[in-house]
Amino acid sequence: MVVRLSERRPEVSPDRLLSECVPPPRFAEVRFSTYRPDPDEPSQAAALAVLSARAETLAKPRPAPSLWSRLRGRTEVPEKPGVYLDGGFGVGKTHLLASLWHESSGPKMYCTFVELTNLVGALGLRTAVDALSTYRLICIDEFELDDPGDTMLISRLLGQLVAAGVELAATSNTLPDKLGEGRFQASDFLREIQALGANFDVRRIDGPDYRHRGLPVAPEPWTDARVEEAAAARTNASCDHFVDLHRHLAELHPSKYGALLDGVEAVGITDIRPLTDENVALRVVVLADRMYDRSLPLLASGVPLDQLFSPEMLKGGYRKKYLRALSRLISLARAA
Q: What's the angle, vertex CA 299, arms to CA 119 and CA 278, rounded to 5?
């Protein structure tokens, strides 16, 4: 029987949200020993050395607080409690971040920036701080500031976690002092952005940015009938009209998009149409990320996937998000 994602309304407990904060399956087995730095890019070997050294420290039990810190009632915080890997797509940032998580002792957490903001939105800031303050390490992939709300929220969250002794690691393709540019009036939040950046030892990783090679060619769209027939012939496949699906996404908190895909082994979407609404487009990006994490083949009809986002969107402040989503959706469509 074909699953209709647009008819599902998953409920996700805080415990599940936290328990799912681990590297995605495609990075489940990576380690520092499997990372191969490009000999022509010395910054890659340098980043490997920095994170390996951090992992050695984080693999040991957390040291007991000193008498002085206990007397002051404050946790001793390193000058730079976080490391921030900046670089283009495909230079190995996520491989290194996941390796740090794997080789560090717990409690620890791994999530994308979007997952972190969704988690805090679902739990509330106070509950999130209480829960995450017990962690030894929090790894944040694809760090970016999308709007003033994110900026204020994450600035407060990370500031309180650092004060509690939590160590941070993050990847991004934007330097900390450039976060938010093109998305909102970042200069109005310079203090918060600078405070975020002050937590990190920034390491640039150089190498060919795979985005410069252009998007892969989108496969020819199927017909609606073919998508519906293929979904019906597969085990545990879903099939929804594109408009029904994106309207349903608007009614769910993004933290539930992963649970929406529980038990699904392929996703069918009929009559995909070009998007012009930024809110709808960003929800589709989150769903694409959750599908990609789970390696779910995409059965698609409608416009070719490389026409999903308007030309204006692909030139705007969320360009990197949209290009990443297109690359992932095209990859999943080819897997079908």
A: 45
Q: State the residue for tokens 């106070």.
A: 126
Cα separation values, 59 from 25, 46, 48, 106, Å: 22, 20, 16, 8
CB of 305 within 8 A of CB of 336?
no
Which one-letter DSSP state was computed for residue 305? G
Position of tokens 């069918």? Answer: 268
The answer to whether the peptide bond before residue 297 is cis (omega within 30 degrees of 0) is no
Q: At what angle do helices 125-132 and 148-163 cross, to 10 degrees?
A: 30
Q: Which two tokens stand for residue 121?
A: 């939105």
The 3-state secondary structure of 73-133, one letter per residue: CCCCCCCCCEEEEEECCCCCHHHHHHHHHHCCCCCEEEEEHHHHHHHHHHHCHHHHHHHHC
For residue 157, pLDDT beyond 80:
yes
Is the backbone of residue 220 left (phi > 0), alpha (psi -120 to 50) or beta? beta
Q: How is residue 219 written in tokens?
A: 């496969």
Contacts for 47 with CB less than 8 Å, ≥ 6 apart = 85, 96, 203, 205
pLDDT the model gives residue 145:
76
Residues in the chain: 336
> What would the pLDDT profile of 161-185 be if each residue is shown by its tens digit?
999 999 999 998 876 667 666 655 5
**Confidence (pLDDT) at 70:** 47
Query: Residue type at 186?
Result: A
